[in-house]
Amino acid sequence: MNVFKTILVAGMALLGATFAQAAGLENMTDGERDVFRAEVRAYLLGNPEVILEAIQVLEERQAQVDAQSDLDLVQANFEELTRDGFSWVGGNPDGAITIVEFSDYRCAFCKRAHPEIQAVLDANDDVRFVMKEFPILGEDSTLASKSAISVLTQQGDDVYEAFHNLLMAHNGAVNVKTLSSLVVKAGGDADLMVAHLDDPVVEQIIAKNRDLATRMKISGTPSFLIGTEMLRGFAPAAAMQEFVDRARSQL
């Protein structure tokens, strides 16, 4: 069953429940119920726009439930999301508004989001950006994230930022040779990066990010926290700016 059919069935169920409650269906005889159901069916067939209205109401209610659920998750995990002490922080590190991204270097939508995020950071000098390495697309993803974390922990923020940007722009193979070439272009030391790929701290950071993502019900990339709102999936800069503006209005 596709999404539309699922929503349609739910909408019809919502309508049916509403009609049934209004008519006191539980107090009817079997014959009266049959007549009532036939009348409801005839009404819906004659007025199909009512189904679409019901679907819209259902979607709005579900969106409210999802938003509240996300807010509860954010409040419960806010410090770990925004100030874990090990994730790279870009933009304005002292900014009043924080954007957190869970990202995978092999994710096409993460690559598309990269310049959009930069556009938001360039346009807002009060926004800090936290990068969560979240490899979920196989061994190449994990290797890329491990190399980035190795660079961050051993060679500092500046080399990491340059390496991160190169990885986001890279569309070819991911292997130690390629990653070594990219880190040299970023001004780093390839041998140092490789030597620390399997450090326990690297593994721990990835494990912590995965655990946090599980608690936040994040299963795909990119996923964002902007202020106190979750944005699950790719969005252009203009859409992210709306989240930033809402966050600023709440300060």
Question: Explain this structure to me?
Answer:
This protein is α+β, with helices and mostly antiparallel strands. It folds into 2 domains: 65 residues, no CATH class; 167 residues, Glutaredoxin (3-Layer(aba) Sandwich), CATH 3.40.30. Helices cover 65% and strands 10% of the residues. The chain contains 10 helices and 5 strands. It has a 5-stranded mixed β-sheet, sandwiched between helices. β4 and β5 form a beta hairpin. The longest helix is centred in the first third of the chain and has 34 residues.
Distinctive features:
10% strand, 10 helices, single chain, Glutaredoxin, 65% helix, alpha+beta, 251 residues
What is the topological layout?
Blueprint: H1 3-23, H2 30-46, H3 49-82, E1 88-91, E2 97-103, H4 108-123, E3 127-133, H5 139-155, H6 157-169, H7 176-185, H8 190-195, H9 200-215, E4 223-226, E5 229-232, H10 237-249
Parallel strand pairs: 2-3
Antiparallel strand pairs: 1-3, 2-4, 4-5
Structure, briefly:
The protein is 65% helix and 10% strand. It is of the alpha+beta class. The protein folds into two domains: 3-67, no CATH class; 83-249, 3-Layer(aba) Sandwich (Glutaredoxin).
Number of strands: 5
For the largest beta sheet, what order do the strands appear in spatially? 1-3-2-4-5
Number of helices: 10
Structural class: alpha+beta
Multimeric state: single chain
Beta-strand portion reads: 5-15%
Which homologous superfamily in CATH is the superfamily of the largest domain?
A: Glutaredoxin
- Identify the overall geometry: elongated
Roughly what is the average pLDDT, rounded to an integer? 89
Distance between the termini: 44 Å
What's the number of domains? 2
- The CATH class of the largest domain is Alpha Beta
Contiguous low-pLDDT stretches (5 residues minimum) are none
* Largest beta-sheet details: 5 strands, mixed
Rounded to the nearest angstrom, the radius of gyration is 24 Å
CATH fold descriptor of the largest domain: Glutaredoxin
Second-tier CATH architecture of the largest domain: 3-Layer(aba) Sandwich
- Which bin fits the share of residues in helices? 55-70%
